[in-house]
Amino acid sequence: MADITITDTVDITDVVCPVTFVKAKVALEELDDGDILAVRMNDGEPVQNVPRSIKEEGHKILKLDDNGDGTYTLIVRKVGD
Question: Which residue of 10, 40, 43, 67 has the smallest Cβ count within 10 Å?
Fold first, then answer.
């Protein structure tokens, strides 16, 4: 996956569920189809809920990386509305 080019990044470590998903969704809505969003989030509820909710919206989860500091980075490809 070294060929992934991140289009935009959103940091949702300062908010709690369900606002975490809302902020990620808004960031995705601002991108074009095929663009890649990196979402930085805290461990726990966001890691459990945000990827699932994004997938339910029809977008493609490319990977979820453990940053080693209590946060994760979710890489998402926007799929057409």
Answer: 67
Q: Which CATH class is domain 8-77?
A: alpha beta
Q: How far is CA 42 from the centre of its chain?
A: 12
Residues 7, 13, 17, 31: which is the catalytic one? 17
The answer to whether residue 17 is catalytic is yes
Distance CA 23, CA 54 (A): 11
Distance CA 75, CA 71 (A): 13
Sign of CA dihedral 4, 67, 55, 14: negative
Check: CB of residue 58 under 8 Å from CB of residue 28: no
Structure tokens that stand for 79 in this block: 């799929």
The amino acid sitting at 61 is I
pLDDT classification of 55: cutoffs 50, 70, 90: very high
